[in-house]
């Protein structure tokens, strides 16, 4: 019998519509595993690559075919945003993006997508006309100020009514001067990526310098530079400085890799149940932060192998706690924390203070929800300390955070009766999550 949810029905489990909006869907009881899992899975495309590919394709000099894009709330919102600026996007399995003269007036819904709220405003500044950017209520709390300030320094006009956050209006003038700008990107690497992705179309390109505490998510910045270069744009990175020359963005083909961060809970399931999970088409070399799962899961007791079938993780029956700096791979934290809560020894994750500005305050949410099941997770100034304790079932609140759903599912494998509130929120990056989870358990 499901436990009652504290949230009103209108705010609970939702399914994805074609535009990236969410509609009501029932609650979900995370299934427990009755033995070791044995599964081979193909995962949908990377959110980070899909949304970069769409931005670059929108700025290109010719059409682009984006091969096997992720189709989820975040990517549909990105497609919607670019369509609102005049770009053509058609297709199902592959998306054909036809660039056009960018124009307002337009109203952009960024939802809760960091990539939409940080990557679209620099593009909107290149449009002719007014572009209003807003998102979910929580999106208004996510860091935007440094991007607004940097865009103004590069020549854009933005009216944020002094808020330094969403909503704001970009008064596009059809061009942006560009040049050198200094930004504190310690709250999000996306503040830099957003500037770099649009920079080839700025008159002078852009040199972006970071000053402040370390920038998180280094692999995502590397992904930005690599994808710019694949589109024929001169781009380079140094120590806390990135340069993108002005020039043409090439169209053509852009293949999207499977989302390796979304592999975390499936591979974690192999460890938790002492089973085996293979993720197909794992790239041999990639800028995705999820590739770090190989090393992290090995340190936690898994055997990891890579061959023509993909990446395989095998669990040996025990999970070991670890100490790890997750600054580069912050988006793996919710699943890593769930894994650590099921381990045989304590864990400590650091370098992740910026997670307080993600979909929710992830540090507070993980502490509240895992401790609500009887766990012992403590918040540090820049991370989490996890002391494994026997857990019991109960309601796991998800705070509109897809990765809280994924973390809850992993806990549920070992803890009967974990009720996942608002499971539909997982559609932010993986609408087919519960189906894939069931398939994994059925082998
Ligand atoms: O550029 C990207 O695609 C992303 C960068 C990271 O953001 P932060 O640097 O804000 O953590 C990551 O957490 C997010 O899921 C995707
Ligand atoms: C932080 C995340 O998303 P966003 O792109 O919205 O920042 C995430 O996917 O874990």
From TrEMBL:
Positions of 3-phosphoshikimate binding: 47-48, 52, 188-190, 217, 331, 358
Pfam families for this protein: EPSP_synthase (PF00275)
Cell compartment(s), UniProt: Cytoplasm
Pathway: Metabolic intermediate biosynthesis; chorismate biosynthesis; chorismate from D-erythrose 4-phosphate and phosphoenolpyruvate: step 6/7
GO molecular function, a single term: 3-phosphoshikimate 1-carboxyvinyltransferase activity
Keywords from the named record: Amino-acid biosynthesis, Aromatic amino acid biosynthesis, Cytoplasm, Transferase
Domain (Enolpyruvate transferase): residue spans on this chain: 35-434
Cytoplasm keyword on record: yes
Catalysed reaction equations from the record: 3-phosphoshikimate + phosphoenolpyruvate = 5-O-(1-carboxyvinyl)-3-phosphoshikimate + phosphate
EC number(s) reported in the record: 2.5.1.19
EC class of the enzyme, as a word: transferase
Chief location category: cytoplasm
Keyword field contains tRNA-binding: no
InterPro entries noted in UniProt: Enolpyruvate_Tfrase_dom, Enolpyruvate_Tfrase_sf, EPSP_synthase, EPSP_synthase_CS, RNA3'P_cycl/enolpyr_Trfase_a/b
Known function: Catalyzes the transfer of the enolpyruvyl moiety of phosphoenolpyruvate (PEP) to the 5-hydroxyl of shikimate-3-phosphate (S3P) to produce enolpyruvyl shikimate-3-phosphate and inorganic phosphate.
Subunit organization: Monomer.
Family: Belongs to the EPSP synthase family.
Name this protein carries in UniProt: 3-phosphoshikimate 1-carboxyvinyltransferase
The species this protein was found in: Actinomadura alba
């Amino acid at each position: 019998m499901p436990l009652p949810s504290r949230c009103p029905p209108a705010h609970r489990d939702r399914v994805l519509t074609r535009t990236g909006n969410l509609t009501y869907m029932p609650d979900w009881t995370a299934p427990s595993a009755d033995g070791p899992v044995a599964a081979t899975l193909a995962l949908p495309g990377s959110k980070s690559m899909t949304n970069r590919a769409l931005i670059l394709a929108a700025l290109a000099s010719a059409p682009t075919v984006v091969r096997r894009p992720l189709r989820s709330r975040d990517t549909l919102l990105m497609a919607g945003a670019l369509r609102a600026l005049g770009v053509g996007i058609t297709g199902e399995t592959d998306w054909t993006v036809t660039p056009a003269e960018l124009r307002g007036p337009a109203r952009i819904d960024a939802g809760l997508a960091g990539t939409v709220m940080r990557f679209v405003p620099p593009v909107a500044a290149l449009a002719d006309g007014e572009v209003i950017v807003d998102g979910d209520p929580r999106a208004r709390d996510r860091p935007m100020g440094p991007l607004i300030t940097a865009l103004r320094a590069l020549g854009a006009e933005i009216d944020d009514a002094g808020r330094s956050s969403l909503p704001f209006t970009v008064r596009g003038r059809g061009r942006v001067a560009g040049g050198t700008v200094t930004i504190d990107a310690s709250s999000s690497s996306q503040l830099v990526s957003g500037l770099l992705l649009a920079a080839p179309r700025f008159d002078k390109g852009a040199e972006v310098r970071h000053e402040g505490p370390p920038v998180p998510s280094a692999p995502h910045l590397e992904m930005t530079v690599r994808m710019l270069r694949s589109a024929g744009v001169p781009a380079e990175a140094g120590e806390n400085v990135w340069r993108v020359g002005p020039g043409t963005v090439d169209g053509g083909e852009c293949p999207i890799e499977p989302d390796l961060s979304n592999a975390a809970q499936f591979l974690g399931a192999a460890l938790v149940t002492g089973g085996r999970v293979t993720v197909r088409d794992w790239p041999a070399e990639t800028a995705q932060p999820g590739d770090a799962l190989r090393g992290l899961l090995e340190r936690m007791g898994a055997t990891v192998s890579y061959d023509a079938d993909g990446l395989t993780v095998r669990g040996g029956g025990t999970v070991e706690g670890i100490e790890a700096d997750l600054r580069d791979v912050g988006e793996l934290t919710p699943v890593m924390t769930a894994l650590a809560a099921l381990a045989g020894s304590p864990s400590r994750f650091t370098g992740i203070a910026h997670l307080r500005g993600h979909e929710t305050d992830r540090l507070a949410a993980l502490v509240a929800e895992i401790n609500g099941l009887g766990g012992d997770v403590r918040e540090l100034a820049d991370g989490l300390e996890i002391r494994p304790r026997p857990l019991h079932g109960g309601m796991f609140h998800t705070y509109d955070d897809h990765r809280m759903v994924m973390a809850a599912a992993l806990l549920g494998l070992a803890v009967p009766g974990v009720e996942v509130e608002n499971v539909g929120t997982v559609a932010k990056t993986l609408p087919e999550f519960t189906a894939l989870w069931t398939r994994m358990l059925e082998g």
